[in-house]
């Protein structure tokens, strides 16, 4: 985090200049009673209080996050989240369920199969829509110095992009860097504070960034493939190449395998150990790549005269990830707000903001027309924060 104090400097020209950094002032122990209250009320209301519980946690997280010395403000309500969830259940999921029952009564396997395919396609499409609209809702309920944040663009368009790129990934996995860059670009170019929008790739460095990401992704892919191939190499060494060249009968192969299993127990142990190791290598490799990708995408994003960077290390990321996993497991999910506090502090500590912001050029934006909350995200249980 940039090490300088947050300041506000009304200059001689009358401009209202702010500079500084992001800081998170929340503490895990401060939300213990909030967690207990949310847990008990969820039990009493059979889970319906979760919309208000989520709102309570967000208000705490927002007010503890300070940017240039001023806290964020969250103005969303539990009622909005509940109404959004209810609307999606009635408009989307209930009609689909009824239609599924009616088609199953027809007894046509072809029609049922086609309907299941369409529903699966719709499901993956709606995940993208839900992601975008949930982000739009959260931003529309965010204030900083009484200035409204927001997000323009259509969730339906974002959902199509995500579905298309995810489908292409099934055919060509190396499209991942382009997919993440494109989706990041769509979100950031439509994000605004007041009437001023964030800018993606102001300096025209996106193409070079994409090349660097592809090289990094290729390195990870090669290492992972090599490690995953080791168990098969061990099997080949253990059995001997003659098993695979087709010159032995089935009975001879069985006898040969049994003999080699007895004489090469060490290689068999190696085979069993390599799989867990390969999974660890895969996790470390993908975490390294994701951090590198995040740092580069953040560096391509700017707002007015501010430059933004992200400097998290692999060690700090794993400390955050493993700690949060343990908290969720040991508390059976009840301690999720504690993980959100840790994540907010992680973001603030590793996000650097350089430059000065002239508040005088930022005008208030119009109210967002959203009247309900993250219906799709709630239905898919995607609205943790």
The main sheet orders its strands as: 3-4-5-6-7-8-9
Number of β-strand runs? 14
In terms of DSSP E residues, the strand content is 5-15%
Quaternary form: single chain
- What is the CA-atom radius of gyration, in angstroms? 26 Å
Query: Which structural class best describes the helix and strand composition?
Result: alpha+beta
Estimate the mean pLDDT confidence.
82
Percent of residues in helices: 55-70%
In sequence order, what are the helices and strands, one letter per element? EEEHHEEHHEEHHEEEHHHEEHHEEH
Largest sheet properties: 7 strands, antiparallel
What global shape is seen? globular
Distance between the termini: 23 Å
Task: Return residue spans where pLDDT drops below 50 for at least 5 consecutive residues.
Answer: 1-5, 10-14, 379-384
Helix count, DSSP H or I runs of 4 or more residues: 12
């Amino acid at each position: 985090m940039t090490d300088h104090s947050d300041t506000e400097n009304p200059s001689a020209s009358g401009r209202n200049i702010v500079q500084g950094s992001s800081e998170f002032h929340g503490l895990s122990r401060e939300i213990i009673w909030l967690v207990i209250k949310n847990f008990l009320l969820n039990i009493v209301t059979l889970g319906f209080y979760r919309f208000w519980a989520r709102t309570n946690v967000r208000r705490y997280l927002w007010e503890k996050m300070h940017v240039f010395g001023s806290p964020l403000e969250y103005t969303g309500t539990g009622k909005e989240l509940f109404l959004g969830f209810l609307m999606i259940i009635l408009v989307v999921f209930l009609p689909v369920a009824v239609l599924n029952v009616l088609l199953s009564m027809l007894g046509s396997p072809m029609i049922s199969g086609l309907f299941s395919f369409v529903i699966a396609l719709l499901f993956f499409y709606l995940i993208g829509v839900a992601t975008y609209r949930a982000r739009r809702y959260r931003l529309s309920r965010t204030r900083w110095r009484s200035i409204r944040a927001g997000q323009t663009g259509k969730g339906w368009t974002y959902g199509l992009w995500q579905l298309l790129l995810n489908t292409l990934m099934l055919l060509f996995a190396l499209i991942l860097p382009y997919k993440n860059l494109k989706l990041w670009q769509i979100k950031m170019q439509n994000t605004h504070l007041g009437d001023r929008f964030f800018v993606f790739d102001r300096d025209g460095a996106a193409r070079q960034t994409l090349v660097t990401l592809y090289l990094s992704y290729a390195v990870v892919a090669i290492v992972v493939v090599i490690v995953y191939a080791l168990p098969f190499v061990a099997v080949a060494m253990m059995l001997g190449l003659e098993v695979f060249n087709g010159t032995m009968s089935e009975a001879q192969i069985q006898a040969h395998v049994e003999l080699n299993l007895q004489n090469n127990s060490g290689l068999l142990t190696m085979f069993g150990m390599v799989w867990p190791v390969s999974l660890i290598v895969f996790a470390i490799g993908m975490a390294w790549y994701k951090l590198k990708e995040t740092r580069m995408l953040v560096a391509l994003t700017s707002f007015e005269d501010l430059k933004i960077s992200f400097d998290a290390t692999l060690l700090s990321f794993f400390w955050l990830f493993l700690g949060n996993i343990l908290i969720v497991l040991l508390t059976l999910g009840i301690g999720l707000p504690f993980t959100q506090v840790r994540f907010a502090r992680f973001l603030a500590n590793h996000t650097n903001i350089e430059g000065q912001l002239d508040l005088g050029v930022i005008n208030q934006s119009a109210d967002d027309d959203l009247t309900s909350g993250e219906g799709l995200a709630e239905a898919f249980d995607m609205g943790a924060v």
